[in-house]
Structures are given as C-alpha cells and as structure tokens.
C-alpha cells in the first residue's frame, strides 16, 4: 500500500552490509598487518573472486508471520534464504515494506523451483550437478475475487492520485482534504498496526478485515486508535494530515493476501 493495516501487520528496518576493501599500492597481494612479530601472512590475491553466497534452502509448506519491527532481510537470513528469492516467492518489490501479521511463504509458489541461487531438485546437467529450475512468480491479480466486504470511502475529499501497478509509491489512492479532517475505517475490522515505523507513510494505521483483506491509512496528523482495537465501518480512526507527505491528504491502500490492489475496484462510486 502506498508507501495499519494495511495484514499486516504493512516492515520495516533494512540491514546494510558494508565491506572493507584493502588495496595494495605496489603489490597485487593484500597482506594483513604483522601483529605477532612473525612473518606476515598473505591473504587472497586481490584479483580473486569472493566466495558465492550460500544458496537458499526452501522450506516447502512453511510460512512465517511478520513480527513488529522485522524486515525482509532479517526474515530471509533467519531462515537461510536469499533476500531476492524470498522477495520473488512472495511477489514483493523494493522497498519490501512488510506489515505485522503478514504471512510470507518460505518456498516458491505452486511448488515451483527457487531461483538460480537456491538449492532444491532440478534437471541433470553434465558433470553430475543439477541446474535449479527458475520460477516465475505469477503477477498479482488486478481484480481479485469478490472480497465479500462492504467497503466505504475513508474520507470525503477529492481524489488526488490513483493506484499504479508496479509503482512502489502508488500502491493505493490519495484523497485530499483539510488538516484534521476525519479519516474513517473503510470496513469492520481490527487495528493491527498504529504507528510511524514504515518510512514514507507517516502516521499510519492498518486494519485487518479478515485473513485475506487489509486496509491502510497513511499521512495522518493524529492516530485515534490503538493496536488490537475493534472498529466498525465509518468509525473515525484518525485525523488527516501531511506526515510523510508534501500536503494534507490520506493515502489509502487495500491489500489482498498482503498484495496491493486498486482500491477503486472495491470502493462504491461517488
């Protein structure tokens, strides 16, 4: 969802790895400092390649539930899976925003094989090794099955921006209005996130409506509900603002199985 609920519970900190490279001025061999008084030992020649990262090990049939404060990198590392594989298996794209309560598969969808860096069954090739079969995740549905939910507009303001598939900053719609204007729950549910931990969303609320559907409400001036609180459609849950935005507006997202869909396909016509 652009950028609550969004089941969240819509993740957050990313780990940055820094590598220190020592460059020899007059030699092609990097040598470590002589700390013990003996002869210095030569390390790997500067032109050699580093060891490849460990291959992913899919856990077929297993899922993990995102906890508050967890990012995709941490989950991938804890489960012995490469970040790129875990993202592909769950149809996630940068910046890999997750939500507390969101479920992630630890294996390729539909029994497919992991990407080239993963290990699992594959076709035989010369030399007795196996070549993993790359999997191509199916695209997120543009119009999922009927949600069975009676959605309502979360705000009365004008439509400022529309949903654009595959555009990370436009995974929902933007609704204009004055600072302090009421932001209301789009359907019955439970608040699964209320905070400021997701970069780009400002003061954010995510509401879980059932096991498949979430809605998210970003850029609020003030949050009026807490995590675990039950809300009814039309209940005011926040005041409109510009936290994380250039102007006062509500960023609203609808997510089906944690993937953003166009809210305009579900909201009633104005």
Explain this structure to me?
The chain has 270 residues and is mainly beta. Helix content is 5%, strand content 26%. It is built from two helices and 16 strands. The protein has helices spanning 72-78, 83-89; strands at 29-31, 42-45, 63-65, 103-105, 122-124, 130-132, 159-161, 173-176, 182-184, 189-195, 203-208, 213-223, 230-231, 236-240, 249-256, 259-261. Strands 7, 8, 9, 10, 11, 12, 13, 14, 15 and 16 form a ten-stranded antiparallel beta sheet that branches. A two-stranded antiparallel sheet has the order 1-2. β11 (203-208) and β12 (213-223) form a beta hairpin. The longest helix is centred in the first third of the chain and has 7 residues, at 72-78.
What does the overall shape look like?
A: globular
Number of discrete helical segments: 2
Please report which band the strand proportion falls in: under 5%, 5-15%, 15-25%, 25-35%, 35-45% or over 45%: 25-35%
The largest sheet, given as strand count, sense and whether it forms a barrel, is: 10 strands, antiparallel
End-to-end Cα distance: 22 Å
Give the SSE map.
Blueprint: E1 29-31, E2 42-45, E3 63-65, H1 72-78, H2 83-89, E4 103-105, E5 122-124, E6 130-132, E7 159-161, E8 173-176, E9 182-184, E10 189-195, E11 203-208, E12 213-223, E13 230-231, E14 236-240, E15 249-256, E16 259-261
Antiparallel strand pairs: 1-2, 3-4, 5-6, 7-8, 8-15, 9-14, 10-11, 10-13, 11-12, 12-14, 12-15, 15-16
């Amino acid at each position: 969802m652009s950028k609550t609920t969004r089941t969240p519970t819509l993740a957050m900190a990313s780990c940055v790895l820094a590598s220190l490279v020592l460059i020899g001025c007059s030699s092609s061999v990097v040598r470590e400092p002589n700390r013990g008084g003996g002869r210095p030992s030569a390390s790997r020649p500067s032109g050699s390649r580093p060891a490849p990262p460990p291959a992913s090990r899919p856990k077929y049939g297993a899922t993990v539930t995102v906890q508050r404060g967890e990012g995709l990198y941490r989950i991938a590392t804890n489960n012995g899976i490469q970040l790129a594989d875990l993202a592909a298996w769950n149809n996630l794209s940068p910046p890999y925003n997750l939500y507390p309560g969101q479920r992630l598969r630890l294996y390729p969808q539909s029994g497919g094989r992991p990407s080239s860096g993963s290990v699992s069954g594959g076709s035989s090739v010369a030399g007795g090794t196996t070549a993993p079969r790359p999997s191509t995740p199916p695209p997120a549905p543009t119009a999922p099955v009927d949600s069975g939910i009676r959605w309502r507009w979360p705000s009365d303001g004008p439509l400022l921006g529309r949903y654009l598939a595959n555009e990370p900053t436009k995974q929902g719609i933007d609704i204009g209005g004055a600072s302090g204007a009421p932001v209301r729950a789009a359907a019955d549910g439970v608040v699964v996130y209320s905070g400021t931990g997701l970069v780009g969303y400002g003061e954010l609320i995510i509401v879980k409506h059932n096991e498949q559907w979430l809605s998210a409400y970003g850029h609020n001036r003030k949050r009026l509900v807490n995590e675990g609180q039950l809300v009814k459609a039309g209940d005011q849950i926040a005041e409109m603002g510009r936290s994380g935005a250039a102007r006062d507006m509500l960023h609203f997202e609808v997510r089906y199985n944690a993937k953003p869909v166009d809210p305009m396909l579900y909201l009633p016509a104005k």
